[in-house]
Amino acid sequence: MKRIILAVTNDVVTDQRVDRTCRTLTQAGYSVTLIGRRLPDSPSLTPRPYSVCRMRLLFKRNVWFYAEYNVRLFLKLLFAPADAFWANDTDTLPACTLAAFLRRRRLCFDAHELFPDVPELIERPRVQAVWRKVERICLPRVDAAFTVCQSVADVYHSRYGINMTVVRNLPLSAVGSLKVRSTFAPPYTMLYQGAVNVGRGVRELVDAMQHLPQCRLVVAGVGDLYTSLRSYASTLDWSDRIQFLGRLEPDCLHALTAQAHLGLCLLEDLGLNYRYSLPNRIADFAQAGVPILATNFPEIARILSQYGTGDLTEPCPAQKEGEAYRLYLLRLASDINSALQRWGSIPPDTRQQIFSTAASQLCWDNEQHLLLSALRPLL
């Protein structure tokens, strides 16, 4: 039995792409071990069909965290039984690449995003240059490379000349249990699910609620801005219609998603990482039979145009004040109202057909064979 060790820098709990990858590899007959980290507030893991090791680290962020993580990871990989090392994102590449080189093992790389182009690094050119240097050194040694959408694959090919297999970050199919709302009337529940970080449009949604008296906003997720945005929302006159739920287990999140009238995916145009992203919530909402209002970016627009499961709106502005921001909030509220009214006018049977078709195609079941097909020749 071939043994694969996968590495992530998160605490594993909510990383559904990595979990699906590990389960697919396990079902295909590989012995799988996933290495992540354990934070002070990390919840216990539910049982999984593969091994998980979570390291406790002294440092939580910045250069010291990445240095400690990769040193600790390298030492584990140097002596662990394995036939291949699998780096998830650029921040795990140094240890995986060095271990694979020294031990003559296969090296796989899964880019969940354009790591050097994340919004947190846009105004930190020196740090950005370091991560691009890491990619220039490591990626030529990769035996198999994967990513989440064609736009990201194209960028990596233009930068480093590597060919990546596109394996979209899609959920398991729920088409058998999919049932759309029988009624679509106010009061409406709008759901944001995902990281509460810079550029994700959560602040804009909170502010736009003043123009949406028939709506309730639910935010499910945590992130760098979670505490400050929750505190900010509590000071507003319409705070009783905004709810921050924090991080939810996948099963709880799926149940919550199915109760929403409208899903939300609003991004600022903060560089290529956001512009070329295909957030997994686009498919998550389709699997739940819930329409979505999303930013008009290429990969998102391609999916919504093909399957008709949502509506598009313009990107969030960088400035959160002044007349331009006020006009944006009015336009956003108008787009939300228009989406709610349009979907409310579509008969339930038609909505059921739209989402059943999308759910049957936008699922991991149709992606996992791409991953296995690229991996089998190596092992």
Mean of all residue-level pLDDT scores: 95
Radius of gyration: 21 Å
The first-to-last residue Cα distance is 10 Å
Number of strands: 13
Report the total helices: 15
Oligomer: single chain
Bulk shape: globular
Q: Give the ordered list of helices and strands.
A: EHEEHEHEHHEHEEHEHEHEHHEHEHHH
State the major sheet. 7 strands, parallel
Strand order of the largest sheet: 3-2-1-4-5-6-7
> How large is the share of residues in beta strands?
15-25%
Broad structural category: alpha/beta
- Are there runs of 5+ residues with pLDDT below 50, and where? none
Percent of residues in helical segments?
40-55%
Structure description:
- The chain is an alpha/beta fold and 379 residues long.
- It is 42% helix and 17% strand.
- The protein has 15 helices and 13 strands.
- It has helices at residues 16-27, 62-79, 93-103, 119-122, 125-138, 150-160, 202-208, 226-234, 250-258, 272-275, 281-287, 298-307, 322-344, 348-361, 368-375, and strands at residues 3-7, 31-38, 51-56, 84-88, 106-111, 144-147, 165-166, 188-193, 215-220, 242-246, 262-265, 292-295, 310-313.
- The strands form two sheets. Strands 3-2-1-4-5-6-7 form a seven-stranded parallel beta sheet, sandwiched between helices. It has a six-stranded parallel beta sheet with strand order 10-9-8-11-12-13, with helices on both faces.
- Helix 6 links the parallel strand 6 (144-147) and strand 7 (165-166).
- Helix 2 (62-79) runs parallel beside helix 3 (93-103) and helix 7 (202-208) crosses helix 13 (322-344).
- The longest helix is centred in the C-terminal third of the chain and has 23 residues, at 322-344.
- It is globular.
- The N and C termini lie close together (10 Å).
- The mean pLDDT is 95.
